[in-house]
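2024-03-11 09:14:02 INFO worker-7 job=invfold-0412 stage=load source=structure_tokens
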């Protein structure tokens, strides 16, 4: 991977209004992402904003240094209805630079103070640092943490998500969060046809999520909007050229046809039920009476 350049941004707002997504608000303290996932749907957003959706997406990462202050101002408005905020939709809130700027932690503190529910999604293991704030927030408002784990196949992971922590480490942190009392689960997305969709791969990933104590699991197939599509197809041509004709036929537009997507999602749902993911009848979002020391090594 090439060296990543970081630059500071004075944002005009923290919360983004969202339509047709199942939630009304999102928050992204960073612009671009070190993780360099070849399939990232946010590359399409970069293209729409006239930013480089290719190498520049991970090569130049913007840091919205005033995001926590803006967020507090927006959450304190009389008209704020404490709607759920999707945290980390277009860039990972726990990419490495968060260790320096701590924007995500400061935003979590704002959500805690203003009792605002969140759904956070990440591939980063640094989330364990903020377990104290997440527990405080969870005691005041609905809080979920979804770990993006498309597959535990390490060969596929290494090629498609070169800047991310290994899937096994993500699941180890997930387990620690759940045992501490935080509602955490797995998003198996995106699943890549021909790369991570074999019955063996799907079963292994769901089984690993169950072993980690995932409170929920959902899955989706990759989608390839302009910006993402060009970058991903270049990756396929370089690493898996035999799959290029299949993807060209499967994705005349951005989305795979239902005949491809529906059976795959159904298979994962069957596996989820088989392994009992989310079947935690006695589970409650509260810490144990005597918290134990966690050996994370992440």
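2024-03-11 09:14:09 INFO worker-7 stage=emit residues=298
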């Amino acid at each position: 991977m090439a060296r990543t350049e970081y630059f500071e941004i004075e944002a005009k707002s923290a919360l983004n209004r969202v339509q047709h997504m199942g939630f009304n608000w999102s928050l992204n303290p960073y612009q671009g992402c070190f993780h360099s996932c070849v399939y990232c749907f946010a590359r399409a957003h970069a293209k729409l904003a006239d930013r480089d959706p290719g190498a520049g997406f991970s090569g130049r990462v913007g840091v919205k240094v005033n995001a926590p202050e803006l967020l507090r101002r927006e959450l304190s408005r009389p008209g704020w209805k404490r709607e759920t905020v999707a945290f980390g939709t277009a860039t990972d809130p726990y990419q490495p630079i968060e260790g320096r700027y701590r924007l995500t932690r400061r935003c979590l503190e704002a959500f805690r103070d203003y009792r605002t529910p969140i759904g956070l999604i990440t591939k980063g293991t640094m989330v364990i640092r903020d377990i104290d704030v997440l527990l405080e927030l969870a005691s005041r408002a609905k809080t979920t943490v979804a770990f993006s784990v498309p597959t535990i196949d390490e060969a596929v992971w290494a090629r498609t998500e070169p800047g991310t922590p290994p899937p096994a480490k993500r699941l180890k942190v997930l387990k620690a969060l759940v045992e501490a009392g935080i509602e955490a689960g797995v998003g198996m997305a995106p699943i890549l046809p021909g790369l991570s969709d074999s019955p063996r791969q799907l079963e292994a990933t769901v089984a690993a999520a169950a072993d980690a104590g995932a409170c929920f699991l959902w899955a989706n197939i990759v989608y390839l909007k302009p910006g993402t599509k060009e970058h991903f197809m270049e990756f396929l041509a370089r690493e898996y050229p035999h799959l290029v004709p299949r993807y060209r036929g499967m994705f005349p537009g951005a989305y795979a046809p239902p005949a491809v997507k529906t059976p795959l999602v159904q298979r994962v749902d069957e596996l989820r039920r088989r392994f009992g993911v989310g079947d935690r009848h006695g589970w409650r979002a509260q810490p144990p009476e005597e918290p134990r020391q966690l050996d994370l090594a992440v």
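2024-03-11 09:14:09 INFO worker-7 stage=report msg="The longest helix spans residues 258-275."
2024-03-11 09:14:10 INFO worker-7 job finished
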